[in-house]
Structure formats: structure tokens, C-alpha cells
Amino acid sequence: MTKTLKILNVTICCPGDVEREIVIAREVIDAWNQRHEDSTGWHIKARHWSTDCAPTMDERGQAAINRQMIDESQILVAILWTRLGTPTGLAESGTVEEITRGMARGIRVMSYFSNLEAPHIVTDFEQMKKLEAFRDKMKDTGLSFAFKSRHEFRKLLEIHLDLAVRDILAKIAAPKKTVGKKSINQKAKGDGNIQSAGDKNVFNINLPKKPEITIQRHPDHILPADQKRVLDWTDELAKLSEEIEKKPYATCIKGWRSRLKNRFEVPRYDALHVEQMPLVKDWYLVEKAKLVRKAKRKSPAIHSSSLIGAIMAGMRTMGVTKEAYYPEVARRLKMKPFASLKELSSTDLEKVYNMVLRDKR
Questions:
Q1: 243 and 124 in a common domain
Q2: What pTM did the predictor assign?
Q3: Which of 236, 244, 9 is nearest to 108 (CA)?
Q4: Which of 38, 182, 194, 230 lies at a C-alpha separation of 20 to 30 Å from 296?
């Protein structure tokens, strides 16, 4: 007997520099289908404009993609790396227009930013500037994730896809409240507060509107952008602990957030005060340095990977590119010229890392 599966559309939105991530996203979706479609009766269809849109001259190109794909999606997976993309006439790029349209239509948008070291190519500084501005905007708008390796991207997407699909299917399965319709043709008089009609079984009651209850943020507490930053820091510490100490991520993240709250004597991370942010950042850097030193003893590969990630993050903060910064680093440290941090030994990586820390100050 043939089993009919219901379709859930997941659209991958990205510029043209993340081809490998598109393949990984499709593999993650295929793996979900193999594990769950028999038990759930749902099949996730992975879509990308290059394979799932039909050509047309009847409308603007991005409008055709919006109509054929975005509007029919339940989830958008947005991935950005070194480029924001080409302007569409309505937005800075097709990816931006797709994300914005998806959010406006209530579609689940999962956005990811790659922190991988870019290949040795000519850098488009204008694209980098636009990308960083959009990245900051997304941080203030909602919850995005960053990844330092494609393996990490795969792990994140596996977890997030499963959570998002479960959430969507739960909403679909939730019973909808129905109200029976009854035709009533009666007139009644009243003072505008309580009116009765007919056999007194039906009442129209006009009471004062319930006051809106809003929870005001304490003026001295950190803003959403800083809250996201603190969560990113504890997340990074947890991931390092997971790799070094071989403990479950859930245990590590719970431990680090508990340490943060105990260190600064707050009930929740969002109760941190604005003036504490520099101290929180220093705490994060010190704890990260401890983990990096621990990794050097236990796992040289993790140690090197951590140093590279920290160097790249520092360079982004300073707004410098590898084409401009690497030659300067080599000259100042009297090292051989290098095009990639992966070429360096562990000792040279530490030298570069320490220089970046000094330059950031």
C-alpha cells in the first residue's frame, strides 16, 4: 500500500559563495527524512532557486523566486559568509529580500553566519561592509548563529532543523477552536454597558478594555544586543569545554551560565548591568584563555583551531583583512610571509594571537 507523505518546504537562501554549505544543508535534510518521515508522515523538501524555480520573463527575477519558493515555504535556512549578494532593486541583495519577506510573512527563518577563514581571493571591501552591517542588524532583530567550521554548521543545523520541524508540526496538529454560528435577529436597548435580548440567554457586554501589561526593562540592564553577545560568549566556552573535556554540550552550557551568574551575582544573564559588560568580556577572555591552554596540553588540534578562530574574530573587530594584515604581522614578528593561518606552527599561531590581542586594545 502506497503511503502518502505530507510535504514541508525548506528553502535555502544564500549568496553564491556558500556552495559547500548548500550541499551540507541538503544532506542534513535527507538524513532527517530517512530518520523521521515514516514515523511522522512528513517529508521535508529542500529547495534552492537554482534547482526549484522555473524561468519567466513576466516579472522581476527576485519576485519570481519569492512567488515560486519563499511564499510557499515553512522554513528558510539563510547562510552568509563573505558576501551579502547583489541588489534586487527593493533590497540590498536577494538573500536579504528573501529573509525580510519570510519574516514579514511569519515564516520560520534560521540564519547562520560563517566565520570560516576566506580563501585567498581579492576581497570585496564593500560587500564585507554591507555584510557586517546586516549581521549586526540580525543580532538586534532575533537569534542567529555563527559557525567556525562546516562540521559545526552540520551539527547546528541538525539540532535546529529537528527543533523547528517539531515546533511547526506541533502547531499544525494543535486542535483549532471552532465556534458554532447562530443566526440572531433581535433588537435590544441598553446603556451601552450591558444589553440583553430575547430570552436573556445572549448578552452583549461592553466592558472597559483590559489594560496592556508590559514588563519594562530596567534602564541599567544590558540591551538585547549585549544579551546576545553574552549568550555567544558562554556558548563558545561551552563548545570548547565539550571538545576538550568530552562532556555533553547541555552540561557544559548549563555550567558556564551558572558560573557567569555566580561570578556577577545576578539571577539571570539579562539582569547584568550595562557597566558590567567590560568586566563580563574580561571574564570571558580569561576563561577562554584557560581553556585554550588546557586544549594545548590535551589536544593540539583543538588548540590551533581555537587560536585561529580567536585571531579571525579579532581581525573582524579591528576591521582588517588578511591581505593587508598578514604581511604586517609577518614583518613585525619577523616571520616568513604566509597566506593562511593554517600554515603556521602552534608557536607562531600563539605569537600572532598575542599580537592581535595587543592591536585590539
A1: no
A2: 0.50
A3: 9
A4: 230
